[in-house]
Amino acid sequence: MRATTISYALGIAITQALWIVMLGLPDKAIPVAMPVLILAELAVPVIAERRHATPWHPHHITERYGLFTLIVLGESVLASANAIIEALHTSREHAEAAAHADLLGSLVGLSALTLITSAALWWIYFWPPHHGLIGTLRESLRYGYVHYVVFAAAAAFSAGIEVHIDALTGE
Questions:
Q1: Which residues does 79 contact at the CB level (< 8 Å), separation at least 6?
Q2: Which portions of the chain are predicted below pLDDT 50?
Q3: Nearest CA to 144 among 52, 42, 47?
């Protein structure tokens, strides 16, 4: 295990140092350096685990990713709620009573749909047992890296709510 852990430590340290070095590169070099560094990050576990795989437990890994997903989804719900509250306060200060009442109805409906959609996203994610999806290193890496898309989608949910609020308020 010593060689594997040293490979991980060196790979991560070198890659992190290269990310810092990239900050000093000219703007034209960034589009080339970025994919190279992303591939280097992805290669660290593959290279480190090639001789001897580290022990891991599928239930623990899927639980961690589930908790990260829950945190991102919760932050998205919080951002949506804050945007709805801010729109409500702004409309109360700047709109006439009839326009405020119309917007209030739309915001209440949007709040309900946001809650329902958030619950649906949570249920869809947690419904199937995930631990059966990872049994090998390749499956584990794929599972982990696919979660970049899951996290981005959960975070983009609140951005979509805010865009809808901007459309409702005319901003």
A1: 158, 161, 162
A2: none
A3: 42
